[in-house]
Amino acid sequence: MATFQIHTIESAPEDAKPLLETSFKNNGRIPGLHGTMAAAPPLLAAYNFAHQQFMATTLSDEEKTVVWQTVNVENNCHYCVPAHTGIAKMMKVDDAITEALRNETPLPTPKLEALRTFTLAMVRDRGFVSDTDTQAFLDAGFTQTNILEVILGAAQKLMSNYTNHFANTPVDKVFEKFAWEKKTAVAAE
Which class in CATH covers the domain with range 1-56? Predict the structure, then answer.
């Protein structure tokens, strides 16, 4: 397995330096994911843009968390699940939602469960979601716009999850207390 450098502002390629400066300004630190992505400045720029756009969707903070964590858990991302646990806390998302997502147990409302089910279908079926599953999502109170927003959230997480798989990015110290392992992965060992 190749070793990936986690860049600082000083070590990053020139095109990545302003991106990392913004990351530091926004977070008070450079998240390991951003430092890793900095080796490919267009990837870091695309990830940041996708994040900004997903934050601007019509989905609530709880719903955004469901999309992010559903994809993170499905993709078994050792870095993103703890990070988004901390982010959910910062966004004041109910811990019951976060724990249900981390543990793959039922969510507290049928609407949030419908969002998780649809997001899983989107990821597992690579966008070829059945008419029945799509209609169930719409019947739960979501819209065609929300379908497109789930695509955006899944695309953002694909960039981070896959980067972390290749780089084995260490979990940031601020999120270490939220360390996570997929239950099925632990059971298989």
Answer: mainly alpha
